Amino acid sequence: MRSIYGPYRSWRMGQTLGVDPICRQPKVCNMKCVYCRLGCGGIMITERGRFVDESRVLDEAREVLEKDAVDIVEFRGTGEPFLAKNLQDIVRTLRTLTDAPFSVITNGSMLCREDVQEELENFDFVVVKFDSFDETSMRQVNRPHVSVSFDRIVSSIRKAVEDHEANVILQVMMFKGNVAYAGKIADLVREIGPVRVFISTPQCPEIPGLSKKEMAEVVECFHDLKVRTIFDEQ
Question: Rounded to an integer, what distance in angstroms lies between the CA atom of residue 65 and that of residue 49?
């Protein structure tokens, strides 16, 4: 497996270089979301570890960036990025190669850690997925490790917004399993106050996604927020 993938055209932020700081199969995460593109299996852990060496990431990224320009460098991949304890070192290493902004897509579960909150400074954008509105719905949709608390995630996101207001984005995955409480999710998102909201839906046959019309109805719940959906053109 390669730790660098792309560049690819992302509906979120344009031409994107993907960075996978976990780079493992099966995936390594502290959640088993029902819609995960990597399936519902994998290794569930809660403590940070070292999965890929930053020198390897640097070599792979240099090979790509010598040929292609990108709009953004996005950290995501085969698990929760903040489980990589050398994530900060990887970011700083890649900063030597490009002036493009850096983003990370996280499930928010690690934001309660002081070291992770400090590492948010390394990113121009912090995208936190947010698919539920209480502990019960999180257990149904995201299926986290027993130690993960919905209230703790929400309070940690609020702290991130307070400390890094200009760059915290919430990403909501809407599908048949949670669309009924889109309004409740929107109300909580509104209270948290991110700078922007991304709304996606599964693009695989295993998990039924929403149609463009259904997505438009969901967006109405977020009508007073700055929203981009997977159906919007760049």
Answer: 27
